[in-house]
Amino acid sequence: MNKQLIRNKMKALRLSLEKEQRADMDKDIFNKLVKQTECFDTVLCYVSSQIEVDTRRFLSFLLNNTDKRVLVPRCEKGNNVMNFYHIESLSDIEQGSFGIDEPKINCKRITDFGGNACCIIPALSYDNRGYRTGFGKGFYDRFLSGFNGEKIGICYECCITEKIDNDEYDVRAQKVITDKRIMTFD
Question: What pTM value is reported for the model?
């Protein structure tokens, strides 16, 4: 299915979900995500917007209950590059480029993620092969093409589609966690 059609459909679907329904789905994803990331020393994770699967609870859990290194992305205006920065608390986050919450300017940029890292990947939709439809800027595909850690997608089950059109630049997730299941891909 065409990515722009999926984007439009999934944005509308997510906006139509009841607040309580989303909270229940977010909780189910959170519980699975905590277990799936237990073995990693470094976790790269986006800060969720209103339309995305909630990651703020997950980030707070990591920061307050583990000794993991927590990194969040900042999209650099003008060059379409995304870099990751170390945060020590949620107070290290502020509204940045594109209206997205990002690490403050004084946070340390990290380029060496170590040998035991995972990246939590946002998407409007995933398909049954692990390919995603994001917001269309290509930040994650560019970053993931050089990332050697585990790639973990999170998505509401109602936003899983049969097949998304993909090209050679698209990088698929190795796992996709939904409120109903964990899908694993080779």
Answer: 0.94
